[in-house]
Amino acid sequence: MTDTETDVPDPTLESTIEETSAVVEDVIENVETVIVGHHEEIEHMVTALLGRGHVLLEDVPGVGKTMLARAVAESFDGSFKRVQFTPDLLPSDVTGVNIYNQKTQEFEFRPGPIFANVVLGDEINRAPPKTQSALLEAMEEEQVTVDGETHTIPQPFTVIATQNTVEGDRAYDLPMAEVDRFLKKLHLGYPDADEETEMLARVVGNHPIERLEPVASLADLQHARDVAASVTVAEHIRLYATELAAYTRENAQLGVSPRGTISLLRAAQGRALLDGRDYVIPDDIQTEARPVLTHRIRTATDRTPGDVLEDALASVEVR
Questions:
Q1: In a domain? residue 286
Q2: Residue 37 carries which DSSP code?
């Protein structure tokens, strides 16, 4: 599709966009019955799902990282598994293992918790790198290889991982190869006084997460992803994303990878769908750039990755 073709409305596509956007809004509203505040972060979670990506939630303990992940996952009627990452967790505890069946005299594969539509990796940085690496193949290729045999993971598939920013002496750094596979890295922060008061009112009795019901099916999620993938990304938008990535590579020790640029465009397509549009605009790129790109940048000076990205957004012009 050319840039000029975007001026010709497609009634069928517009109707599909509108219907799908309504489903996405239902999911956001459902999550907000559990999570007070953090509307922006919830939208970022949902656009990451639409962009076929994975999400890393990083913050101090107790601010609702795990609850947010659960609320998003349970808003769909697919399978949900939680993995509590600990120092003694083995890769096979995540991927699964072949077990010898004495009756059949054959090895049988027992799938691990990675075989679910939404997988919550809680406190992922508490497990050693070898165990963390068990996620890499699944996150990138949506399959798992055990003892030379490849097993396909159910679709749609998303990993939502959490890590805390304290007790660094009891945690492991995530390797860049793994960090780069997360479409977004989000921070929640503490609620303000009004939000915390409202949150306390909700959890005095039974926690609202216990009453949360799915509002969308797996078919709805897969359809929403397909619709998001059909959102038009014009050439000047692609060029804008490319030049943002190039700026980070030229002004940091490690800049945004091509995978990061792809992730940015996919997240922007999800943002456009959320806003009821069938085309991406520069505002979508700018809204999604911070959670998608910042964690992919490494600096060797006093400038932070956030500083580099802000300079890129200020310097690179939309053509």
A1: no
A2: S
Residue 289 lies in a domain: no
**What local confidence, expressed as pLDDT, does residue 2 receive?**
42
pTM value surpassing 0.90: no
| Total domains, the chain | 1
In 3D space, the residue among 157, 137, 136, 183 whose CA is nearest the CA of residue 79 turns out to be 157
Assigned token pair, 125: 């940085």
CB 296 within 8 A of CB 179: yes
* Domain of residue 29, CATH code: 3.40.50.300
DSSP codes of every residue in 273-286: HHTT-SB--HHHHH
Sign, CA torsion 291/115/135/223: negative
Q: Which residue segment(s) compose the domain that 55 sits in? A: 4-230
User: For residue 15, is pLDDT > 80?
Assistant: no
Pairwise pLDDT comparison (236 vs 141), residue with the higher score: 236
CA distance 80 to 116: 6
158 within domain boundaries? yes
Span 292-306, average pLDDT: 92
> CA angle 240-245-249, nearest 5°?
145
Quick one: average pLDDT of 82-110?
A: 87
Q: At what angle do helices 39-50 and 282-293 cross, to 10 degrees?
A: 100
Q: Is the residue at 235 inside a domain? A: no
Say yes or no to pLDDT of 250 above 50.
Answer: yes
